[in-house]
Protein 1
Amino acid sequence: MEFGYEKLEVTKLSKDIIKKVYILTKNFPRDEIYGLTSQTRRASVSILLNIAEGGNKKSKKDYNRFVRISIGSLVEVDCAIKMAIELNYLGQDQYNEIEPIIKELYFKLIGLSKYLSK
């Protein structure tokens, strides 16, 4: 069985971000396991889960609400990764690997939200 959200480009990009976030956070300090590591991972997964949940809603308005939550989670991931750089858990080069995906997904989610707002 395939659901509608699985066909979307934002789904593929969300999965890419989840995979990258798990790799990037793997080497965070052990004492961050319940802090920045967990929060960054949960936020990355939240992007995809809200796309999936929203895609099952009956109205465009409800779907858009979940897309907007996905955007918030994406910005949260971006912020957490930037904070990890400031804490010297990651290097700028590691952010440079994920940043284009974050940017692309952000603009695609904004586009989806605008479409659903019509």
Note: The mean pLDDT is 97.
Protein 2
Amino acid sequence: MEIQLGVVESRFADMIWKNEPVTSSELVKLAGQELQWKRTTVHTVLRRLCDKGLFQNENGMVTSLVSREQFYALQSQKFVDDTFSGSLPAFLAAFSMGRKLTDAEREQIQQIIDQAGEG
């Protein structure tokens, strides 16, 4: 699954994930407050996100089809694939270049590696 979102779409999607299940009328209020959007803009962007398969709008109730965690995991995998030819070690080397990892960060990364090796 490949879903591309612009910056504004990402902010709106995060708003939905944070508040779901949420009515479309509540989204109009939230987006008006946080993004200064009009009702028509909210409905246009919501329809685009539903068409992309992220959310569904059933009788005015908006829920996700893909969780925030799933979406960003897919985006991260695509970034590593596109930028580092799928090499996670190359990504980690580039990510950590020029910065010192804390003991807590190293421990967390090691736990992730250990869990991935078990799965």
Note: The longest strand covers residues 55-58.
